[in-house]
Design brief:
heterodimer, A: mainly alpha, 2 helices, B: 9 helices, 0% strand, globular
Chain lengths: 65, 246
């Protein structure tokens, strides 16, 4: 352990902005990628449900006709 | 009856791959979390302060793995794109398409972390040095691949066009790798060499553990994306209807 206090850990010997900036950017981008994939999945599920709904309606219409 | 058989044959690869990928994702996701936790712990609490660069050197723990992933994933993407093109294998082409955004993100991370390291180490965020310029070109190759594919509606034509671009662009990867030897550059030499094993073992292990974490992350995310691509492209396939209702 090289850190005597939390502020020492945060300041990174004066390089805090660069070190935490680097790790922060990495964290933000990787998290953003995961969230974007989740959104894409949700959207895909929605269109599938809409189409499914249309298909059941169509088949009902067919039986009615 | 015979028609459904043709469909099964046609979608043979995705039909087997889709559920398999689904089973693998949690494992790779779990390994990602564990390896990132260990890697970050070693990076900040075990690895000692560098006598020359102080704590700013800790940026390499994420910079080097990100830069490597950018290059590895590009080669992998080109191989998949090439297989998809040469053997008309749609799943391979879908893999190439799924890899591209993740590769672009890691290349971008390597550029950003590199300039955040450059500022304290060299006094500048950016110079038009051989390695940095060729890495920027790698970033543009990824962006070119993604935008070229999304601009073509016919997916198989998009796959072929992307494959040509990806394969031509592979030339850039050895250029990035050897740039520090071929040109007199500001960027320091390779971090991982036989000599570097003399560096503190905890420094080396922090970097290698985070590299493994980035690999696990990439595999997990690419598998998630390729499953979505399969769903988007083959939504009319009978097996998918079964999968969706199950």
């Amino acid at each position: 352990m090289h850190w005597n206090s939390l502020s020492e850990f945060i300041s990174m010997g004066g390089y805090g902005v660069y070190v935490w900036g680097s790790f922060g950017v990495t964290f933000v981008l990787l998290t953003a990628e995961i969230l974007m994939l989740r959104a894409r999945k949700r959207k895909l599920a929605q269109t599938a449900t809409v189409r499914e709904g249309l298909e059941t309606r169509n088949s009902k219409l067919e039986t009615v006709l | 009856m015979s028609r459904s058989r043709i469909n099964w044959y046609k979608y043979a690869a995705p039909v087997n791959f889709y559920p398999l990928a689904g089973k693998m994702i949690p494992w790779f996701a779990g390994l990602t979390i564990i390896l990132f936790a260990i890697g970050l712990y070693v990076s900040f609490f075990v690895a000692p302060v560098d006598f020359q660069q102080g704590n700013s050197y800790r940026i390499i723990f994420i910079h080097v793995p990100a830069a490597w992933m950018g290059m590895f994933l590009y080669v992998l993407m080109a191989i998949y794109a090439g297989i998809g093109w040469a053997f008309n294998a749609r799943l391979a082409s879908m893999m190439a398409t799924a890899i591209a955004p993740t590769g672009a993100i890691f290349t971008f991370i390597s550029l950003v972390t590199g300039s955040l390291w450059g500022r304290p180490a060299w006094g500048v965020y950016w110079v038009w040095d051989a390695r940095m310029t060729s890495t920027l070109i790698l970033m543009f190759l990824y962006i070119g691949f993604i935008s070229l594919q999304s601009s073509i509606d016919d997916t198989r034509r998009a796959d072929r066009a992307g494959a040509v671009l990806a394969l031509v662009g592979v030339i850039n990867v050895p250029i990035i790798y050897f740039s520090v030897q071929w040109w007199n550059t500001l960027h320091q030499g390779a971090t991982l060499t036989a000599r570097s094993f003399k560096m503190a073992p905890s420094m080396l292990s922090a970097m290698l553990i985070l590299m493994a974490a980035c690999w696990m992350y990439s595999i997990a995310v690419v598998l998630v994306r390729v499953r979505l691509i399969i769903l988007e492209r083959e939504r009319e396939a009978p097996w998918l209807v079964e999968e969706a209702t199950a």
